[in-house]
Amino acid sequence: MTTADTDTAAGAGWTTSAKVVAAFVVGTLVGVLSIAKLVPAAQLSANASGPAGSAAPNSTSPGSRLVNKAGTAPVAAPGSKPGALSPTSTNNHALPSGLRCDAAHNGGSTDRGVTANSVKLATTVVESGIGSAFQGEMRYGMEAVVRQVNSAGGICGRTLHVNYQDDGWSGPIGAQYLRDFIHGGVFAIPVGASSEGLKVVIDSGDITSTQTPVVGTDGLEIDQYMTSQGGPQPWVWPVATATVSSARIMVDDAYRRGARHFAVVFDTNYHFGREAATAFNSEVKRLTGGNVSGYPSSSCSQLYCGIKSGQNSYSSQALTVKKGAADFIALFLEPETALTWMADANTPPASGGAAPTYGYGAAQPLFTNQFESQCGDKCDQMVVWTGFKPVVEQYASDASVRGYVSALQTVNPGADQYNQFTEGAYLGMELFVDALRQVGPGLTRTALKTALDALKFQPGVTLQSALAYSPSTRFANVTMQGFVMQYKGSAGGWRVGPTGTDPRPQAGAGS
Q1: What dihedral angle (degrees, nearest 10) is formed by the CA atoms of 257, 262, 263, 266?
Q2: Residue 340 half-sphere exposure toward CB, CA atoms < 13 A
Q3: CATH, residue 227
Q4: Closest CA to 390 of 461, 340, 285
Q5: Peptide bond preceding 296: is omega within 30 degrees of 0, i.e. cis?
Q6: How far apart are CA 177 and CA 166, in angstroms?
Q7: Which domain holds residue 275?
Q8: 1 within some domain
Q9: In a domain, 113, yes or no
Q10: How far apart are the C-alpha atoms of 228 and 221, rounded to whole Å?
Q11: pLDDT at 484 over 80
Q12: Would residue 4 count as lying in a domain?
């Protein structure tokens, strides 16, 4: 596990006491000094100040079909000085009227993890184990934003320092890291890249009881959006479209095209698969009046097929689904398991149904260059859904998408620019930075929450023009687009497909 760009492991040596000092003074000023425009990624050097770039995560576990092709990120030169702030500002980047924002006017140490010149942050990542096939490069998306901010002198003179810890997508291990971060004095958890551990500390009440902001999550699980009582998560702000929304959007699109006999294949090891399958069935029942055949089941029964991830073969389960003759099949799987499933599903059985008339739908974890290229002809015409703009067709020339790719390549030229979790991590870090700018010099967790709860964020890389948060909802991103995988003798990338919006995101996994 590498932590070259961290401060100290698991928050060791960080103070546990909150240092709340006097509030900043709002004066009547003739002009407003706004925060700097981010330095374009192409102008950043490998020696940008702030947290150094980490080594690339290791390849996935031995025997994995998915090989992590990332190279080593450049490392910042110790002691390099941040660049000067620009007097210009961009959309969402200006300070509130009347505030001065520089090291001399930032209020000094205003909260735990905040000093006059730095903000201590920490998050868990997934750079080993089965989840690394789609979450393994999220650190690079975050660092693309962190380096831009720090090379421009930070925010109000404060640079960002992020401690990244690999938890292997383990709930217990991730939860322990996150609790160590919180009690070690971290100001906030940006992105929260590893969803399993984050789920544990959200559900246990650790996040709410300690008032720890978790900003820009892309874990897709419903408890990042709403509590078990149905209210909004008070201290979590997601940027992605929830998995349950993607399930409803898939069903709605297939139903419009004529599908009436639905199947769902889902991972039972991790929460996103079980949540997705429940929501998928609820939407099928709403539209057709009946459950998916085999529902409810904790294993693979007829067309409601739960499978354990990481197995060598799913031939018997694939045959079960084939015999059901579904006309649309949705996959809520991580990439390695999906590759094995598609290989078995495309093996001609002794008996069974034909390929689904209305094809396959797949969730965001399968939107990676590695999965697309390795699945090949077996995934031709599969529709993979995302709430972000990928580097595909008309979006490849979009200015915001180009900015994301340029910034990502500055951190690691070998990173997968198509990976939607990496793009989500970049977006989540941008949301966090934008909220810090809205707060200005008097940085506290309460002030950050107030800013986020009123924020209308315009990131440019989402299908929606803006993500709007409020005290009553965390479902800011509810629109997705399907992208059709192409294979014509060789892997041909994706083509733009249908768009859908979930009109009932607060339904959660239920009906």
Answers
A1: 70
A2: 21
A3: 3.40.50.2300
A4: 461
A5: yes
A6: 9
A7: 244-386+479-507
A8: no
A9: yes
A10: 12
A11: yes
A12: no
Distance in angstroms between the alpha carbons of the first and the last residue of the chain: 42
**65 shares its domain with 107:** yes
Residue whose entry in the numeric block shows the structure tokens 């999906």? 338
207/251 same-domain check: no
Nearest residue to 477 (alpha-carbon basis) of 244, 255, 282, 271: 244
Distance (Å, rounded) from C-alpha 34 to C-alpha 169?
A: 40
Q: How far apart are CA 235 and CA 213, in angstroms?
A: 5
Same domain for 162 and 55:
yes
Q: Which of 73-77, 164-168, 367-371, 451-455 has the lowest mean pLDDT?
A: 73-77
38-85 pLDDT, tens digit each: 333 333 333 333 333 333 333 333 333 343 333 333 333 333 332 223
Pair of tokens at residue 325:
């003759």
Same domain flag for 81 and 202? yes
Looking at the structure, tell me whether residues 409 and 437 fall in a common domain.
yes
Q: Please, which residues have CB within 8 angstroms of residue 251's CB and are 6 or more apart in sequence?
A: 262, 280, 283, 284, 287, 330
Residues 180, 203 contacting (CB under 8 angstroms): no
- Domains contained in the chain, number: 2
Residue type, 180: D
Pick the closest to residue 93 from 465, 457, 470, 449 (CA basis): 457
